[in-house]
Design brief:
Radius of gyration: 27 Å
Strand order of the largest sheet: 4-5-8-3-9
Order of helices and strands: HHHHHHHHHHEHEHHEHEHEHHEEEHEHHH
Distance between the termini: 66 Å
Oligomer: single chain
Strand content: 5-15%
Structural class: alpha/beta
């Protein structure tokens, strides 16, 4: 597969990863709205009302609370929505409030601005367009920039419609159609800009013809001089078949052939081409992770980008950092489920040795490394290792160090020819993926941070409850041996969850769902 085709595949897959869904079951976040996600029920009024009921109220000033109460009491109008937007903006500038509250209010004001714009407010549509433009100026990712450019053009068209009196806020908002029109207008404008820029430079007619087609960034791999190359329609011939597998271990003929020795233990691995799970569709993986971990969209973006053009399912070493209860471990295991990779959970808390890398057979307890054991159990080369609580490993290296042991496993070059002390030979562990979780980034050793992509995982909010509660209920049903049909939560149970869980720790939400199950068992008398 040529570099041009790989680059084109990456651009195409990332474009799909940033494509918003057709419908949503919960109000979109500010970030999602900027990427083009639809409004809840397709109407700005109900969307704003549902969103306002999902935000935490702790720390909000009286002016904001009064505006929220006014919104909750009656019909959502332009005046009510504009008042709420201004209240959030005023709170964001109030130095008497804490910095966290001011930051939240600044984001809430921008979120309200979108709904107020769609309700027909010209000033807020222009401000929302300006904020999108500012966000666009700070982005360096091509796909993100394209999504933001579409939103900016979409808001510009909306402002024009409001100014001309052609916008009817009572009709459903079809953002997909608006963005399609915005894309056509942007492409038409780019043709004009390229042509006249070339003409102003006084270049030749052949160069002008090339300028109309336009130079393309290197990361797409498109050559404007090739009229037959279309990066969005590669055809079947451009798809390279995934590799049949990876030879993890060589023949173990140097070891004694005993009944219980390592040669017998790894008989199904040694000198065999072990299968690999092919890389799934990045777009499907992105959507699946957003459903499983909706409060960490950066994780879905990172995993999907790793799969673009990959020969098989494999991730860059990833460090998930977040407060306790933010679901880092669950997110790491969810990656394995979505990618269909066998996952091994290794707790690093209190580990004060290097036994992650295995021990020599010179000791009575000799064993292979954790990744090699996982490969033997799964009988496939690409597996996932989730190293939990990586910041709580012991710092002493008296008996070896987990961090020092991990480092060569995280480097693809060294992992391809890693000497295993148990098998006494080089093994190829490059297909193995690693996800490490930590609460405090400052307590993670510098060499480990340097070898990992760091993704911050925030605590889930109340707006994610509709997606989280069914997942937790299903897990509790499996844990308690209940029938899957009992995982369904009725309206009253969901209402109680909304009342008792305001966002934060997943452990607290799990306890709340467990209380719902226990209440069923107690019966109506209780």
């Amino acid at each position: 597969m040529t570099d041009e085709i790989r680059r084109a595949e990456r651009a195409r897959a990332l474009r799909h990863a940033y494509t918003p869904p057709d419908t949503v079951t919960a109000p979109a976040t500010l970030r999602q709205l900027r990427y083009g996600w639809p409004l809840l029920w397709g109407h700005p009024g109900p969307d704003l009302l549902a969103w306002s009921r999902s935000i935490p109220l702790d720390g909000l000033p009286r002016g904001v609370l009064d505006a929220l109460a006014a919104l909750d009491e009656g019909t959502v109008t332009v005046a009510v929505a504009s008042t709420l937007t201004e209240a959030f903006a005023d709170a964001a500038a109030d130095t008497r409030l804490t910095s966290d509250v001011r930051d939240d209010c600044r984001e809430y004001a921008s979120r309200c601005r979108f709904s107020t714009a769609w309700l027909g407010d010209y000033a807020n549509s222009v401000l929302a367009m300006h904020e999108t433009d500012v966000h666009l100026g700070g982005s360096f990712d091509d796909c993100e920039r394209w999504a933001l450019m579409l939103t900016r053009a979409e808001l510009s068209y909306l402002a024009h419609q409001i100014l001309q009196g052609g916008h009817d806020h009572t009709q459903p908002v079809h953002r997909a159609l608006m963005r399609e029109r915005a894309a056509q207008e942007l492409l038409a404008e780019s043709e004009v800009v390229r042509f006249w820029a070339a003409l102003d430079r006084g270049e030749s007619g052949s160069t002008l013809r090339g300028a109309v087609r336009g130079p393309v960034r290197d990361d797409t791999g498109t050559d404007p001089r090739d009229p037959d190359f279309d990066p969005l329609d590669l055809g079947d011939e451009a798809v390279e078949a995934p590799p049949a597998g990876v030879r993890v271990a060589p023949p173990l003929t140097h070891l004694a052939d005993t009944r219980a020795g390592p040669r017998a233990e790894f008989r199904d691995v040694a000198d065999r081409i072990l299968p690999v799970t092919p890389a799934p569709d990045p777009e499907a993986v992105h959507a699946a992770l957003l459903r499983r971990v909706p409060w960490a969209p950066a994780l879905a973006d990172a995993v999907a980008s790793d799969l673009v053009g990959a020969p098989y399912a494999r991730l860059r070493p990833t460090l998930l950092v977040g407060p306790p209860g933010s679901g880092k471990t669950s997110a790491g295991l969810a990656i394995g489920e979505v990618l269909t990779l066998p996952a091994t959970l290794f707790s690093a808390a209190g580990v004060a040795d290097g036994m992650f890398g295995g021990t020599s057979r010179a000791y009575h307890s000799g064993r292979a490394s954790i990744p090699l054991q996982a490969i033997r159990r799964a009988r496939q080369a690409n597996v996932l290792i989730v190293v939990d609580e990586g910041d709580k490993a012991a710092t002493s290296d008296h008996n070896g160090s987990l961090v020092s042991t991990l480092l060569p496993y995280l480097e693809s070059t060294s992992a391809r020819r890693l000497y295993d002390v148990y098998l006494e030979c080089e093994v190829d562990l490059s297909p193995v993926s690693y996800v490490i979780t930590a609460n405090d980034l400052a307590r993670v050793a510098g060499p480990l941070r340097d070898r990992c992509r760091v993704i911050h995982v925030p605590r889930p909010g109340r707006e994610h409850l509709a997606a989280l509660a069914p997942q937790i209920a299903e897990a509790l049903c499996r844990e308690r041996g209940m029938h899957p049909s009992e995982a369904a939560l009725d309206a009253s149970e969901m209402e109680s969850l909304y009342a008792f869980w305001r966002g934060g720790s997943l452990r607290e939400l799990t306890a709340c769902v467990a209380v719902c199950f226990d209440s069923r068992a107690l019966g109506p008398r209780h």
